[in-house]
Design a protein that fits this description.
Length: 225
């Protein structure tokens, strides 16, 4: 049992963000442009927050069974966000930075506080008995429609809960890629959510569902006047 725990601990400590599958920013966008979200953004991304955590499960394994898969009800699902929304990319990027802990780092104030936060996140990763908290950082990134990135997505293994954002992919390629991820999700130890930014959200949603991918259409929640 001690050896099993040691191997799991080492594997978790060695896990890194999969830069082959995901990019922190879209091409042409600075990767370090993190700003405090506006009150409007906080209100509008509520549907994204609810969808991300739906079926995410506790993310924990029994204390005395470290090799048992973490509890995840829905390992993989997709949602489509209408691309004709002029604020779509800004809102989604702000939500991604909220999920991945960038806003927590910004609020921490200073390199030392940021280091403590990163160490605390890694410590939580290795506690297989710990239940996932809403404030736990996710891995978030953009999936580019490129052969290398598609191949990396096909073999993707999430190190923690993950948000994948796909912007403007051709429908045929998108359905094929997400169907492959859905097939792979049986081995996922953490929930993976793919947010698709597309025109004609109803059409791509139906195609994804026909391919066996749990998919829904999301809309930004109107900010209160």
């Amino acid at each position: 049992m001690a050896e099993v725990r040691r191997r799991r601990l080492l594997a978790t400590l060695r896990a890194r963000f999969d830069g082959a599958a995901l990019q922190v920013a879209l091409p042409g966008q600075p990767a370090n442009a993190v700003r405090k979200p506006s009150a409007t953004q906080l209100a509008q991304w509520a549907p994204l927050q609810a969808w991300s955590f739906e079926g995410a499960g506790t993310g924990s394994s029994p204390l005395l069974r470290p090799t048992q898969a973490p509890q995840v009800e829905l390992p993989f699902s997709a949602a489509v966000w209408p691309a004709d929304d002029p604020t779509a990319l800004d809102l989604i990027d702000a939500f991604s930075r909220h999920l991945d802990g960038s806003h927590q780092l910004l609020a921490a104030g200073g390199a030392l506080a940021g280091l403590r936060l990163r160490l605390r996140v890694k410590a939580c990763d290795v506690m297989w008995w710990r239940r996932r908290q809403a404030s736990d950082p996710w891995d978030c990134g953009y999936a580019l429609n490129e052969p290398e990135a598609r191949a990396a997505l096909a073999r993707f293994e999430p190190r923690r809960a993950t948000l994948v954002v796909a912007v403007g992919w051709p429908q045929e390629t998108l359905v094929e890629t997400l169907a492959a991820m859905q097939s792979s999700s049986l081995r996922f130890a953490h929930p993976v959510r793919c947010l698709v930014v597309q025109t004609g959200p109803g059409s791509i949603t139906e195609r994804l569902r026909s391919a066996g991918v749990p998919a829904t259409v999301l809309q930004p929640r109107a900010a209160e006047a």
